[in-house]
Every structure is written in C-alpha cells, then in structure tokens.
C-alpha cells in the first residue's frame, strides 16, 4: 500500500518526544499531543471515500508501533496514539484498528505488565478502547491489496525506539540461572557422596569454579548496565547534535568514513527516492524524484489509481537525509566505546 | 485519567488546514490542496466515486427486521475478490474484480448463486431468420453445473439433476500420469460451509461454471463480525465493490445498449456490428418482417449489464 506522505515522520517525532519525556503518564502524552494539535491530522477537505482509506492507513501505521521489538515506553506511547487517533478521526462510522490473532497474546501480556507495574492510566485507556469496540479481530495484520508495487517498502524501524536487543539477557534468564544453580548444587552433592569425606568433595574433583553461577549472573548484569549506558549516551549525543549548527554537522558527518555508515546511508537514500504512481488524470505532472530502479514505469503508469499519493518535495528530502545521516554518525560514535573488559577472576569493580 | 483531551476545544472547520501546523502530513497535504486551487482544478466526486463509496458503506449498521436473522457474535466474515474472466485487452494489467463479503456459516452454494457473470445470461443460437423467436432460456438455466476449487478439493454443485461433475475430467487427468499434484478430490458444494474449509489468504482459487467460464477467487481478509457491520443474515453474500464496465451502445443510435450482434452483414459497415433492438429490426427487416440482405445475427448480452 502506498503510505501517507509525512505521516511516519509525524508519528516518530511525537513518539520520540514522548520517549524523551521519560515517562509513561497519559497527561504528559496529552500535553505533547495538544502542543502539536495532532487531532488536525485528518483535516483538509477530504471526501468520504478517500477519508476512509486514509484513516485506515493511519491507524495501520500507528498500530505497528504497538508491538515488539519496540521498547515498553514506545509501546505505551503507541497505545495512547491509537487512542487519540481513533477518537480524533472524522469517519462515520469510525474506522477500526486491525489486530491479528497472533498478536493478541502479546497484547494481553502487555496489559498484564501494565497492571503489574501499576500504570493504571495506560490500562484504563486500553480498556476504554476495548469498550468502544475499536478493534477488528483479524486473521492477518495487513489488509491485502493488489496494486503492483514499484518497490517493496522496507519497514525501517527507528533504532532508538527499539529495545536494545538483549541477546545475552534472553539467553541467561532468571529461569536458566535458577536451573543452573540447582544443577550445580546437585553436582556438588554428588561429588560429596562419592568422595571419602562426606561433607566436602575431594580436592581432585574440583574441576570447575564453585561459584560460577553467581559470577555468571554478575556478568550479565554488568552487560545490561553497559548497554543502558550506551543507549543513554546515544540519546544525549543526539540532543547535543540538534542544538549545533547544521553546517557543522554535515562536515562532521562526512568525515566519518565507516563502511556501515555508507551502507546505511545508501539504504536510506533508496527508501526516500522511491517512485510514485501518478493517476491518469495527473499525467502532466511529472514525478519529482528520479530513481535508479524505477525503470520504464516512471510517471505514466496505466493504473486506475483513485488517489495520487505524492511523495515529499526534494527540499524536505534534503533535511530528512541529514537527519538520517546524523543517526548513522551516532552509530559510528558509539563504536568507539569499547566493551568493558571482563577480568579472569570473578571479582567485580 | 481523563479522556476527551484530544478533541478541539473551540469550533473548528475540519476542511481547513491550520496555517501554522507543525505536522508534516498536513503541510504536504496543504501544498497539494493549494496547488489544486492555483490551477483551478475542480475537485468534485465523480459518479464512479459516489458509486464506490455507496457500495462500500450502504450496508453498514443494518439490522434485520426478523430477530432470527441476526448474526451472532463470533461469526466470521470473509472478504473475497472474484475476478472477471478476461474479456478485454485493456484489462490485462489490472484485472477487474468484484468484492463480496461472506459469512463463515454460509454454504458455498449461496456464494455461487450470488456471483453474477455475464456468461450466465448468454443465449445461444443464430436467429437471423426468426428474430422474434429468440428463446427465453438463458445459459444459466441450461448449463447449471459449476464447481469451486479450494485447497485441492473440487466442490461441485449437485443440487439439480442436470448438474454434471465438471471436475471429474481434471481429476482423471491428474491421476493418469504422475504430474506432481497431490490427490485431488471431489465433493458436493451444498454440503459445505465456509467454516469447514481450510483456506489461504491471498492464494488464488477457482470458480468455474458454464463448462469453461473461469473466475479466480482470492480471499483478502478474514475477521470476526463487528458491532458496526451489517448484521442482517439475508443480505449476505454482500457485494461491496464492483468494477464498472462501459456498455456497448448501438452503432446506429448510439443511445441504447446493444442487444444484437451481426456477423458477415452486407448492410453493416463493420464486422461484428452491434445494434439495439429497434435499429436492428428497422435496418434488417422490411415492413412485413422479411429478411433483407445477408447476415448472421446473435442475441448479445453486454457485460456492463450489471451496472
């Protein structure tokens, strides 16, 4: 489906501000919403048929932020966003939020989390949505459409919204640690049983460190702390960057020659310069951006599209690309922060 | 916490985009609207758009008069796209289709009855010599067989004794050599409801009738029925979207829809040539009803007849 131009940026901006505020309170979100007067997002003299389509796409884009791998705060923000959009929409009868069957257990878990951590306002908002019958329970998350896509849009997650992918933590969970502890005890007991002195295992049998489970737990905690610090640094550097001069940034960015940065920049460039399908009636208006992969289908597609989706103007593209490259620079900056060295012995700093 | 902090406090016109909006979406939309203003592009709903919107929303919220016809909670709603068989060259890139909503508890035969295809209305036979005796029987009555193909099983319509098993020949063909199809089976259409089937979304299935008129069916969505949907069971299968086909008009008067088509007509400028009933008789027959000139004439049913 062709997206709504500018919508993703607006959502990310709002959710970003919410994340900055570092809270999950609804009042804070409502303030941010009112600041931006987000309810006007559906304005603009749109007729009924197109308004339905537009609202559907808006809600669909917003609900993507509601699921993992986004961090908890973003997901709460997405819930508030859905609530706001659902109530601010101008369609009559209201367009609903599509949730796939496979996602419901996730949502229920999320709701339990909310209740456990006593975020009652978020739970209340969710309950209100349920009571208002705002959800369609569907088999598949995206409604199928059959337009020939000029380009499969990559679903580009904003890096900062994601929970830091905590592979170490997902491996060494509490359960695993507990089980390791049990096995370790059992092992020690077995050693005692077979050795001469019943209260203590033989010296010859001490092949592993006795308290390795505890040290494992400490190491994983350290890793988690390191990761959180890294995220903090990332966020702080973004804040300082935005206050500086744009020109200075560009020079700073270009001096970073990391391969990964280039690859990321290339991907972003591609995703911002996709070709738009222009309907027959608007054929005289040429497509603004030339894309290398558009091929022959540029500009004069024979499709009977009812809605001509416009891509952002070149000027806007420039600024967002700078923003994109800014993020790339941060990735390279953080690469200079080395991993904390883990010492041989199991003593912490 | 409180709600309704979202809505605007003062009266706002939802048609007007606020000047100083910080939202990118609105800025882009405003530019498009301003450009339209500049170039004086008239922006009204054409009748196609009105039709599409009406079809989409005419049944929402309807409730039946008879409470036994009320759809219960937990009913499944399937959205099917039924494609027209290819008739025109201009459709080869985007095949036209109609969208039908169907309940999970409805039988396959109900869907079959609701599909309106122009080939059902064809009248076979050449009638240049006896134009008044064009028979009443349309193909729908003569050839009643049909089948659906879902996931390896052919569901044949066996309600009437004239119905034949059209799928038998396909099954025999696939079994004759090892062609790589797992065993295809045959079943009766009237015994199954949609809830019994296992289906893939987005996968093309087939509906075949009249022996060789084939329609592709794709399921685009399955969801639970909702309070705001149409809850009158009698209205399902519900048509929500239909492709508009232009009807062919009579060559002579250009006003009425064509009802006759002639081939090898010495009186007509092109072959084949379409006529409405009045013009056809006026041109080809004299006052006594004698045939003038040489031609072959067939009754014609235009695909746009369902508009």
Automatic annotation (TrEMBL), chain A:
GO molecular function, one term: sequence-specific DNA binding
InterPro entries from the UniProt entry: SNAPC1 (IPR019188)
Region (Disordered) residue spans: 280-349
Regions of compositional bias (Basic residues) in chain numbering: 303-314
Biased composition (Low complexity): 291-302
Domain of life of the native organism: Eukaryota
One cellular component term from this protein's GO annotations in UniProt: snRNA-activating protein complex
GO biological process: snRNA transcription by RNA polymerase II; snRNA transcription by RNA polymerase III
This protein's name: SNPC1 protein
TrEMBL record, chain B:
Cell location: Nucleus
Keyword set, alphabetical order: DNA-binding, Nucleus, Transcription, Transcription regulation
Predominant location: nucleus
Signal peptide segment: none
GO cellular-component term (any): snRNA-activating protein complex
Superkingdom in the source lineage: Eukaryota
Keyword DNA-binding: yes
Keyword DNA-binding: yes
Entries under InterPro entries matching the protein: snRNA-activating_su3
One GO process term, biological-process aspect: snRNA transcription by RNA polymerase III
GO molecular function, one term: RNA polymerase II cis-regulatory region sequence-specific DNA binding
Family from the record: Belongs to the SNAPC3/SRD2 family.
Function: Part of the SNAPc complex required for the transcription of both RNA polymerase II and III small-nuclear RNA genes. Binds to the proximal sequence element (PSE), a non-TATA-box basal promoter element common to these 2 types of genes. Recruits TBP and BRF2 to the U6 snRNA TATA box.
Complex formation: Part of the SNAPc complex composed of 5 subunits: SNAPC1, SNAPC2, SNAPC3, SNAPC4 and SNAPC5. SNAPC3 interacts with SNAPC1.
UniProt-recorded name of the protein: snRNA-activating protein complex subunit 3
Organism name: Vidua macroura (Pin-tailed whydah)
Gene that encodes it: Snapc3
């Amino acid at each position: 489906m062709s997206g709504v131009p500018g919508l993703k940026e607006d959502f990310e901006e709002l959710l970003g501000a919410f994340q900055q505020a570092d809270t999950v309170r609804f009042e804070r979100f409502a303030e941010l919403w009112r600041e931006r007067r987000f309810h006007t997002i559906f304005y603009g003299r749109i007729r009924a048929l197109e308004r339905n389509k537009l609202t559907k796409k808006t809600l669909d884009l917003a609900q993507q932020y509601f699921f993992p791998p986004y961090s908890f705060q973003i997901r709460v923000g997405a819930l508030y966003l859905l609530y706001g959009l659902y109530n601010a929409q101008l369609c009559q009868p209201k367009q609903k939020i599509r949730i796939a069957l496979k996602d419901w257990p996730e949502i229920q878990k999320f709701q339990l989390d909310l209740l456990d951590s006593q975020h009652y306002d978020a739970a209340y908002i969710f309950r209100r949505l349920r009571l208002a019958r705002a959800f369609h329970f569907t088999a598949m998350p995206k409604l199928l459409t059959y337009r020939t896509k000029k380009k499969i849009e990559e679903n580009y997650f904003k890096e900062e919204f994601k929970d830091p992918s905590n592979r170490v933590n997902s491996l060494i969970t509490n359960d695993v640690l507990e089980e390791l502890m049990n096995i370790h005890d059992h092992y020690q007991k077995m050693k005692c049983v077979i050795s001469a002195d019943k209260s203590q295992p033989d010296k010859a049998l001490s092949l592993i460190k006795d308290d390795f489970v505890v040290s494992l737990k400490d190491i994983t905690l350290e890793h988690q702390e390191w990761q959180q610090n890294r995220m903090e640094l990332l966020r702080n550097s973004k804040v300082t960057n935005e206050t500086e001069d744009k020109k200075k940034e560009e020079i700073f960015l270009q001096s970073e020659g990391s391969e990964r940065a280039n690859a990321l920049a290339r991907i972003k460039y591609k995703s911002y310069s996709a070709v738009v399908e222009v309907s027959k009636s608007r054929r005289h208006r040429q497509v603004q951006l030339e894309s290398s992969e558009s091929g022959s289908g540029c500009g004069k597609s024979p499709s009977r599209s009812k809605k001509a989706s416009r891509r952002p103007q070149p000027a806007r593209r420039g600024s967002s690309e700078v923003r994109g490259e800014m993020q790339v620079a941060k990735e390279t900056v953080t690469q200079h922060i080395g991993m904390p060295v883990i010492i041989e012995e199991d003593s912490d700093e | 916490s409180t709600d309704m902090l979202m809505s605007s406090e003062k009266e706002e016109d939802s048609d007007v985009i606020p000047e100083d909006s910080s939202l990118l979406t609105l800025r882009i939309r405003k530019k498009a609207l301003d450009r339209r203003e500049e170039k004086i592009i008239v922006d009204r709903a054409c009748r196609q758009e009105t039709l599409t919107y009406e079809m989409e929303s005419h049944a929402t919220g309807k409730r039946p008069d008879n409470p036994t016809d009320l759809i219960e909670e937990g009913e499944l709603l399937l959205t099917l796209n039924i494609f027209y068989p290819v008739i025109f060259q201009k459709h080869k890139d985007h095949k036209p289709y109609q969208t039908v909503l169907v309940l999970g508890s409805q039988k396959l035969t109900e869907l079959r009855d609701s599909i309106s295809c122009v080939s059902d209305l064809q009248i076979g036979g050449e009638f240049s010599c006896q134009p008044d005796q064009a028979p009443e029987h349309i193909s729908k009555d003569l050839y009643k067989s049909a089948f659906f193909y879902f996931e390896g099983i052919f569901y044949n319509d066996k309600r009437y004794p004239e119905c034949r098993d059209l799928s038998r020949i396909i099954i025999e063909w696939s079994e004759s050599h090892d062609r790589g199809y797992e065993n295809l089976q045959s079943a009766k259409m009237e015994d199954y409801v949609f809830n019994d089937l296992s289906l893939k979304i987005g996968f093309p299935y087939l509906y075949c009738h009249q022996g060789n008129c084939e329609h592709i069916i794709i399921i685009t969505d399955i969801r639970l029925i909702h309070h705001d949907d149409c809850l009158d069971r009698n209205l399902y299968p519900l048509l929500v979207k239909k492709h508009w086909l232009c009807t062919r008009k009579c060559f002579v008067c250009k006003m009425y829809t064509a009802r006759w088509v002639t081939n090898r007509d010495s009186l007509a400028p092109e072959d084949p040539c379409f006529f409405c009933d009045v013009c056809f008789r006026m041109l080809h027959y004299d006052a006594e009803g004698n045939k003038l000139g040489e031609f072959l004439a067939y009754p014609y049913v235009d695909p746009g007849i369902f508009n």
